[in-house]
Amino acid sequence: MTGPDGLIRPGTPAPEFTLPATPDGRRTGPGQFRGRPVVLAFYPADWSPVCGDQMALYQAAMPEFERYDAVVLGVSVDSLWSHRAFAEARGVRFPLLSDFEPKGEVARVYGAYTPQGQAGRALVVLDPAGTVTWSYLSPAEVNPGADGILDALDQLGTERQVVAR
Questions:
Q1: What is the DSSP string of 40-82?
Q2: Catalytic residue among 41, 51, 125, 149
Q3: Rounded CA separation 98/149 (Å)
C-alpha cells in the first residue's frame, strides 16, 4: 500500500530484497536483520551536497540508532564503486546498497523512485518483524535529518536500557 505521495505506508509488510553492498559481491537487505529495527534511507546520489550531509549525519547519529539496536541501510541507484569512494570520503561505515541494475527496482517497489531516474529522499523504518512502521518522503533539496527516524524508533519501544555500573 502506498500513500498519496506514492511512498509505502505504515502497516505494510516490507518488500524483501537484497542488493549489492560491496564490490566483492556481498549482498545485504533488511531480511538479514529480522529481530532488529531497520532504517532504509533512500537518497538520490552519492556526491550531491545534501546527500553527503544526510549520510554523514546518520553516521554521526549511529550511537543514537544503536540505542534502539537499529540497522541503517542507505539505498541509491549509484554503483558500488561510487558508494565505496563516497563512504570513504564521508566516513560512512553503514552499508550503502546499490539499486543500480535493474535501475531503481527496489526504490520503485517502496514508492521512492523519481521521474528523474533516481531514488527520492525517502526514509522508511521497519519494525523487528519487517513491517513498515514509519515512512517519510522529503523534498530532494531538504535533508530530513534524524529526528523523525528517532521518533519512529522510540515508538517501537526497542530502546536498550543503559545499566549504570
A1: EEE-S-TTSHHHHHHHHHHHHTHHHHHHTT-EEEEEESS-HHH
A2: 51
A3: 22
List the Cα angle 142/2/54 in 5-degree steps. 20
The cell for 134 is: 514509519
Catalytic status, residue 51: yes
CATH superfamily of 33-156: Glutaredoxin (3.40.30.10)
Grid coordinates standing for 89?
570520503
Non-local (6+) Cβ contacts of 54 within 8 A are 41, 43, 121, 143, 144
Please state, as a whole number, how many other Cβ atoms lie within 10 Å of the Cβ of residue 77. 25
pLDDT tens-digit series, residues 53-102: 999 999 999 999 999 999 999 999 999 999 999 999 999 999 999 999 99
Residue 65 region by backbone torsions, left for phi larger than 0, else alpha for psi between -120 and 50, else beta = alpha
Stretch (H or E) spanning 87:
helix 80-90
